[in-house]
Amino acid sequence: MSTAVRRLMIDKALLGKNEQLAAANRQLFRAKGILALNLVSAPGSGKTALLERTLTDLAEQLRIGVIVGDLATDNDGRRLQHARGGVVQITTGTVCHLDAGMIARAREQVDLEHLDILVIENVGNLVCPAGYDLGEALRVVLLSVTEGEDKPLKYPTLFRTADLVLLTKMDLATAAGFDREAALTNLRLAAPKAAVLEVSARSGQGMAAWYDFLRRAVEHGRA
Amino acid sequence: MSTAVRRLMIDKALLGKNEQLAAANRQLFRAKGILALNLVSAPGSGKTALLERTLTDLAEQLRIGVIVGDLATDNDGRRLQHARGGVVQITTGTVCHLDAGMIARAREQVDLEHLDILVIENVGNLVCPAGYDLGEALRVVLLSVTEGEDKPLKYPTLFRTADLVLLTKMDLATAAGFDREAALTNLRLAAPKAAVLEVSARSGQGMAAWYDFLRRAVEHGRA
What we know:
The structure is a homodimer.
Chain A (H helix, E strand, L loop, with lengths): L2 H29 L3 E6 L6 H11 L6 E7 L4 H5 L7 E5 L8 H7 L10 E5 L16 E7 L6 H4 L1 H5 L3 E5 L4 H4 L3 H11 L4 E4 L8 H16 L1
Parallel strand pairs in A: 1-4, 1-5, 2-3, 2-4, 5-6, 6-7
Helix pairs in contact in A: 1-4
């Protein structure tokens, strides 16, 4: 057997194990009425900035906990310390994505009893996280206006699995020469099932629509 | 033996094979006096935009060929068709990096006889490409000013292997609120051996220094 074939078999076995752990996570989150989100994007698309503002603006309305993954540093965990539901930092070393087992261990450190939303901020990567179900209810993919309008076509596997796409850093759209129509056309092709919201955590543009989305998703999950 | 241990062993075997192929690539490039560069960055940091302008500006001085990797689409290959030394597009499917074997096959399609520089534009990813030597003479890592100043600390494995870091999209530095001192401090920590150049392919800022770097590196390789 070639190493490539053997590796494929082991990858499949590991993914099978991930599916089981993801199902257990999902069942637990559902049972407790918690909306679990998996936030994925390239490095520097603004996942943490979006969360920083969201946690502040929704502090009185929703109890939000955060699990955040990075290869190194706890910078993001520190930036999100104001999460009412707490924050757990996972450092993955050289691993380019979170997996369901990491979430199963991290959620032991979160008080799930009074949580409305658990946001899982994945490692910054448009490839590796695509194949790993974490047990989330919704997968939210961020694409910043500075990254180029063709990214949905160039990373089709991830975008195809998105439930919501957030076009971020809209305050930089003009300076970056962002072609909005091209981006929306490519998103319709690559992420046909995803809703799309245009936001800026800095200027506040579109944040109200994002908060509405979250409130409705929490209610829907409990209905 | 656990699946994790078995996987690690197979990963090591595959990496050993990669080292051999990388050494063969490197030997061939050196023998032919070609400067081979491995361009790595997050998605959307401006690798292709940098190359587009470089190929145009240096067309009469240096013969440059390009091998470009993407999961999907040949967009980048088409954008770089004006490379005098030709362009080869590799589509990797779900693989998040190029490897030395892919380069060994792709270089068969490049006329290496009259080439000064071979630029290998890697898949947009700050994690996976770090461990894969392609046989390049220099590894060039791009970091755009819109991505956040802490990225060198958050992706230490890749930045540690950089010979040159290009801070890109400098024309957006003010609009993005880029903290230049923080970025340079973090680069000194994470990429102590790397030279740093600040460039904008759009405004042309710093491009002359980048071209000087290339000319000197070509001469040095042939000295």
